[in-house]
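Deviations from the work plan: none for this task. Representative record:
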Amino acid sequence: MVKMSKAVVSCIIFGFAFLYIPIIALMVNSFSDSDIPGVWTHFSMRWFKAVLEDRDLIGAAIASLKIALISATGSVVLGLLSAIATTNYSTGRCRKMLGNLIVIPMIMPEVIIGFSLLMLFMALEDIFGIPAERGVITVAIGHIMTTVAYIHMTIRSRLVLFDKSIEEAAANLGARPFAVFMSIKVPIISRSIAAGWILAFTLSLDDLVIASFLTGPGATTLPILIFSNVRVGVTPAINAFSTMFIGAVLVCGMLSFLISRSSKPF
Amino acid sequence: MWRGSNIQGGTCLVVLGCIFAGVIALFSFHHGGQKDYGNNVVHICGWYGIISRSILREFEETTGIHVVYDVFDNNDTLEAKLLATNSGYDIVFPSFIPYASRQCSIGVYAKLDKLKLQNFQSLQTPVTEKFKEAGGDTDYLIPIFWGTTGIAYNHTLLSELGEETVSYDTLLNPDKLSKLARYGVSFPEEFVDIFPQAKKFWAIPGEMNDVGTIPMYKKKFLSIRKYIKKFTSSTMISDILAGDFCAAIGSSDNAWRLKRAAEATGMDVRYVIPHGFGVLWIDCVCIPNKALHKDNAHKFIDFLLLPRIAAQITNESGILTNVTGACDLYASEITVDQNICPPEKSVANLMMGRASTSKSNLAYHKHAAKAWSQIRMGNFQDG
């Protein structure tokens, strides 16, 4: 064990304080009785009760989660296919161009993506009659469009390091291409797939701009609700909700840590 | 490099889990997401927290119509959705100036069927008079909510600074404002909430909608720009309570909530409409042209025009409702402050911009909005 100097320790403390003090402050304030976030009066659980009774807030959270699940999964499938296609199955200039084309939505302003998709859906509705109205699905499509680039990058960076001889060995031993793909490639890159999924899920969960363009009746997402809240002043219910959310994330993180540890035989 | 089976177990499971979760979400969307209420439904898009759940529930119980209430977070994206195509909403609540008036003039809204609005005559109020005077058309738009723009300030702090009486002289005069700058002063996010007062205070000549006057506003505002800490219409409450700001120009409904919260923490926060400088703002309720459930939408608007319901909205949110008879049912904590709830006879003296219905007004709004965003960003240019 290397003994760390005081300077290193204080740097570490400062770094983590910078990352976590705002979150801790938010959580502490959710237990305040005050009507205004950030003002401490005395301990109370009333805002947690308010969250559980607030159907709008819960409904928005469910809509956001649905959209995030659909778009994360959808973009993982597309991102995986595009990453494989651009690393293994095409050559030269064409591959490079395709790879770049996929990444462009990542650097495009969200306002442009949101508005252009709205125009697209409008044209589609005029010509084909679908989508008949906007809602969860249209927002999810918008999110897939932006997040696919991130997943493409995550998975591709793993595929570039991929040792092709393992696949060739499997093929030599008689595995069909699909079997090679499922039992060799997918397991090896599964970590980057999972990482990409989580990234897409998070990006979708906190997107405001695209969602507010593409949403329709019955699909108010959480960020839209929070920003709409500012019209009447944000209440500590948002703090309480965030605390619950962070708690849920911590539990999930813990679980995945336990799972990944238990599945490590050596 | 490759560590074989250890990756296979756990992480592969996680990947499968993720994909499974996505499929379930998609599936549940088709089944649980949209319950089948047929046509017995009304899709509303409004601000969060103005119309409470209990009011929506009462409407559902009395009429049997299911309410789907969505919120919007700013007028601009609502406008994009309304202009682009069928937004899917049956009722929307845009701000009158410049949004609703502009949308109305290009035919976004359906003509209201007065026969279905039994309570329509309860709109005969001074606010409706001002609404019509400014170019509003009650055939399409109903001026349902209103309030004023004034100054909210920390009285204790400003007294110490020698500003016992607060007026626009305090906030628009560079000499006085520079003294307050250290304690934080915020201005509204949109030009419509500040130009009428500024025009009167600086005695800017010409009509309210004269494009030629815009450079004068710009010059004047840039002279005080460096003393303005923030442009916001929403965070005024927490800013003043936290002590980061000593004064803010903002709306009366926010001021009411601010005062209420300040009383609870023992602060002396006041809201004032400087004499002769009151500005009236209006939020409309209207039915988009392509709404699928126009009958239900009419029923909902009629419901909002009931004095009892209107008063309940006011008492819960501090936003004033433009319905005769509702004022008598306002809670005393609202009516006690004549700044928050101006008496009927003083409404006629409030200032108001012009609706963006004509071409010249549209041009004015466009240029003024552009000038205002340049003023807001002014601070980045001179460092």
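DSSP finds eleven helices and no strands in chain A.
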